[in-house]
Amino acid sequence: MGHYKSNLRDIEFNLFEVLGTGDRLGKGPFADIDAETARDILAEVRTLAEGPLADSYVDSDRNPPVFDPATNSVMMPAAFKKSYKVWQDAEWWRLECTPAYGGTLAPRSLVWSIGEMVLGANPAVWMFNCGPAFANIIHELGTPEQQAIGQLMVDRLWGATMVLTEPDAGSDVGAGRTKASRQDDGSWHIEGVKRFITSAEHDMSENIIHYVLARPEGAGPGTKGLSLFIVPKYDFDWQTGELGTRNGAMVTNVEHKMGLKASTTCEMRFGETIPAKGWLLGEVHDGIAQMFKVIEHARMMVGSKAYAELSAGYLAALEYAKTRIQSADLTRSGDKSAPRVAIINHPDVRRQLMTQKAYAEGLRAVALYAASVQDKIQVAEFEKGNEVPGGLADGEASAGEKAKRQASVDERLNDLLLPIVKGVSSERSYEQLGQSLQVFGGSGYLQDYPLEQYIRDNKIDSLYEGTTAIQGQDFFFRKIVRDKGTALGALSAEIQATLDSIGDEARLKVEGEAVGKALSEVGTMVGAMIGQLTSTQDDIRNIYKVGLNTTRLLLSAGDLVIGWLLLRQALVALEKLDGNGLSASDKAFYEGKLAVARFFANNVLPELVSRRKIVEGTDNAIMDVSEDVF
Ligand code: ST9
Ligand code: FAD
Which of 110, 233, 267, 448 could bridge across to 253 with cysteines, CB 3.0–4.6 Å? Predict the structure, then answer.
């Protein structure tokens, strides 16, 4: 038995009992996958995840990839290669791949459910295997000639990378200095140094396609001056895929890092010894917008990875807490001869476990909710293709127009949710994994259990794909202010609709009131921050007040959405519990949903009151002191 424990029951609960994924299956864009097939796929992926994919997780941490500077190559651990091959052979990655290249269109909520299990079992397997998903970008944005490259990437299972970061351009991608110069044959030569590039070298595919941001000669500063180039490791025949000469995109170092060691993190030098030849994606200079299509996908992946690891950590801690006997029950602590009990009986351990459960299941609920919004966008896009034109009275919106309007709200809602999925999931998962380890006592600190590796592997999630600070700023400035509150309004309306649906249900009164109060607190925080932003007209330094609160707002909005979704799940659970014929395990599962919603409402959501007060009372005191004070 490997290290990984999935929670397929909860995944299926989200998909089929709460989010309505089942209703979208077997028709429209998802005609090829009905609900039964989806359940079969999930079960098969779980078997792989808990078995052969998880098998190499520990080994590749202790025996990480080896870099050979003489040949600029990397040897992957044998055990990892075995897991990787199992995943490639299973072909479930085709659900991430456009039908144009031989994939099957699947709802994103199903794809990310599968993703959760693979990412929880062995995250590097999913990451190395992103080539087919990257190929979608070429299909969508490439020229007709370039689209052939995407097909080769899928057919030959080439690897792929996203190449943004440079030594002096991390969060500030626009500071990148890597340059591109056009050649007479229409290709480009790339020159510069990139760092921290995931999957840039390995020995598991014959070729790797790098998606590189570089600045064409004469282009302007900042992100808007960057273009996106397709730069292969080996040159190749665009029709047959036959490999040609080695291209000048070289890995010159592989980092030694805290965790996630199976995933290679590479320094890359372009055009240093031989020219690094590439092609401008779509023959248009729109690099940052094009790259954000990859980034949005990758941010979803990172958020899913983060809570997948927390979920596994929580389930491991839960199992340990039921078997580890230590100390007497608190009610008998004065009695030295009282029987010793399993630690799950101690109130403080229960507090820790229930907080972990709340965040593990709550963050899953948030990610799958975002994914279900993506499902709706997929359906809307499909229906747009089938739209019946005109023939309506003045002022009457066609079904197509209505669908279009809704699609645009859904797109904005998805945009609003992404920093929550990425930023909140990574922060809370890391924080709570510390608590999972705590449940193990000193044993958790040993390599005998997976917790210490989970924590090391998880830390990266709040750093890459935009640090939490960047997610907080994205959430407030772009997803709320620039959006003029449209998506936030749509989300608030959904939360309010759940509150309204509670009606007279006394059993969820406490939870409903807590979520209602949290909604109002977050609304007040946003209002206060918009006030601070507006007051920059009088004093530009007031922008610091906003900057002091963007992460706080992001985490608070995350708690609100978690509280809301746990409540929504509790409503479903209550209905099930009121019915007949539940198995013992289902009864416990649904009762767990009520317990966790109540716990979160009583123990976490009230914290939003003090966070709102902090936001309202923010001044510039720490911006006014000198650096020497720190
Ligand atoms: C990394 C990788 O860390 C780690 C893991 C890799 C794992 C392997 C790969 C797996 C991925 C697989 C993907 C497959 C692909 C599948 C696709 C399927 C179809 N949303 O605000 P401005 C754009 S990689 C959308 O002025 P600044 C927008 O075009 C390294 N677009 O920014 C905008 O123009 P406009 C990750 C956005 O001040 C333009 O940018 N590094 C968004 O110039 C300029 O916007 C990072 O993530 C958005 N949220 O630059 C960097 N935001 O406004 C973090 C901006 O006209 N830093 N755009 O629309 C940032 O994000 C900064 O905020 C910044 C600031 C660079 C954007
Ligand atoms: P910096 O930008 O220097 O940030 C340092 C600190 O300052 C952070 O806490 C940050 O939040 C804060 N900060 C910076 N700017 C601001 C601001 N404006 N406001 C508030 N706080 C701010 N990159 C790729 O291109 N491709 C990859 O595949 C890839 N994979 C990676 C894999 C690993 C293991 C690692 C470690 C990194 C990877 N990265 C990759 C790079 C990653 O995306 C960057 O590390 C990340 O964007 C942060 O940049 P930085 O490390 O330069 O930190």
Answer: 267
User: What ipTM was estimated for this complex?
Assistant: 0.99
Compute how many other C-beta atoms are within 10 angstroms of the C-beta atom of residue 619.
Answer: 11
Produce one character per residue of 197-234: b if its CB has 16 or more CB atoms within 10 Å, e if not.
Answer: bbbbbbebbebbbbbbbbbbeebeeebebbbbbbbbbb
Q: Are 204 and 316 found together in one domain?
A: no
List beta partners, residue 280. Answer: 229
**What range does the domain containing 206 cover?**
141-285
Q: Are 256 and 307 members of one domain?
A: no
- The b/e string for 447-478 (b: 16+ C-beta within 10 A; e otherwise) is eebbbbbbbbbbbbbbebbbbbebbbbbbbbe
**Domain end position, chosen among 440, 466, 492:** 466
**Whole-angstrom distance, CA of residue 57 vs CA of residue 449:** 12
Please classify residue 552 by burial: count the beta carbons closer than 10 Å to its beta carbon, then call 0-12 exposed, 13-18 middle and 19+ buried.
Answer: middle
In a domain, 360, yes or no: yes
Expressed in angstroms and rounded, the spacing between residue 123 Cα and the centre of ligand 1 is: 21
Average pLDDT per block of 10 residues along the chain, 630 residues long? 94 98 96 97 98 98 98 98 98 96 97 98 98 98 98 98 98 98 98 98 98 98 98 98 98 98 98 97 98 98 98 98 98 96 98 98 99 96 65 47 72 98 98 98 98 98 98 98 98 98 94 98 98 98 98 99 98 96 97 98 98 98 98
Q: Catalytic site residue 465?
A: yes
Task: Please count the structural domains in the chain.
Answer: 3
Give distance in angstroms: CA of 528 to centre of ligand 1: 27
Residue 97 forms part of a structural domain: no
Q: Is residue 58 part of a domain?
A: no
Residue to substitute in 122, 172, 465, 473 for testing ligand 1 pocket (most ligand atoms within 8 angstroms of CB): 465
Centre of ligand 2 from the C-alpha of residue 42, in Å: 34
User: Is 238 within 8 Å of 244 (Cβ atoms)?
Assistant: no
Confidence at residue 199, expressed as pLDDT on a 0 to 100 scale: 98
- Which two tokens mark 103? 């994939």
Identify which ligand lies nearest to the alpha carbon of 303.
Answer: 1
